[in-house]
Every structure is written in C-alpha cells, then in structure tokens.
Amino acid sequence: MTVRALPILFMTLLWSAPAVAADLFTADGRWVGTGSLATKVERPMQPARCEVEIEQTAAEADISMTGRCVVGAGGSHIAFRIVRSGSGRVRGALKSGMDDAALQLAGTDQSGALDLQSAEPWVVDGETYDTLITVREPDAESFAIRQMVRQDASAPWRLIVDMTYRQP
Question: Among 92, 131, 142, 143, which has the highest number of CB atoms less than 10 A from its own CB?
C-alpha cells in the first residue's frame, strides 16, 4: 500500500551531503536517511527510511534529488531541487506525495547550514501551513534535516520530518 501523503519527505532528501565536505552542494550519488516522519501533517511521527540519489546539475550551485521514503504502512516518491541564488540565498521546489503541487521554498545558506521557508502557504487537505526546513551537519559524515509546519505565525512549529542521511 502506498502512503499518498508522505510529507515533504523529499525535504529529507535535500539533506544528504558528502562525507568529506560540509556543503550540500558538493554531494553526489546515493544517500540513505533514517529517522522519523509524519505521513500527514496532523499524524504522529513514525520510524522511516529514505533512499535518494543526488545529482549535481551545475557546479556547486544547483542540485537535484530524487528517491523514495518508506514507513511501516508504505512509501512515496519524492523529488527536490535546490539552487544557490548568490549572497547566501537559496531557493528550491519540493514535490512529494503530500499534495499535487510543488512546494516553493526560499531561504539562507550560512556555511552549509540551510534554512528554507515556504515562499507561499502550503495547502494540504484543505488546510494552510507555513513550512520551515533546516539542514545541519551533526558530524563530518552526515546531514540532518528537520521539517516543521504551523498554521499561523502565532502557533508553535510542529515537527513532521526528522531524518539523518549518510552514504551507504
């Protein structure tokens, strides 16, 4: 059974970088993520595993990630593209089984630490959310990706993706 609403699992993809470099934009090849995610925005987190392929589409400025994430109930394909815009800025688009439209993102790149926020409200199952994605390097051989959502600026962020990627 395919879980149609695996969240921005794809974001999880986003955060797979090389073992020797602290910069996502030098990543290439196959990466495996483990952690937890929610299959729908309002559902509880559950154990998950993602396998993604990262391809450089421009020298250290443009990457494309595609793959699949699975939880106990099934899986979903994900696709993500992220581009350095210059002056510490990044932009991206994420497509997952959560909805039919690509989620547009914009944010900052500070020494390889990415912070991306939805450029416009993300609509899932008729509800509107802000989205925040962070990418950090917990050690020299991995990247951690966290995705959070909230319905309005006064609400606390709710974690829906918490994955760490390593090369197999």
Answer: 143
What is the value of pTM for the model shown?
0.81
Q: What are the C-alpha distances in Å from 62 to residues 66, 75, 82, 124?
A: 14, 27, 6, 27
Two tokens, residue 26: 């030098």
Please report whether residue 95 resides in a domain: yes
Q: How far apart are alpha carbons 56 and 58 in whole angstroms?
A: 6
Residue 26: exposure state from Cβ atoms within 10 A (0-12, 13-18, ≥19): middle
Query: What pairing do the DSSP bridges indicate for beta strands 62-71 and 45-58?
Result: antiparallel
Tell the burial category of 138 from Cβ atoms under 10 Å away from its Cβ (0-12, 13-18, 19+). exposed
The segments of the chain whose pLDDT lies below 70 read 1-23, 99-100
Counting the structural domains of the chain, the total is 1
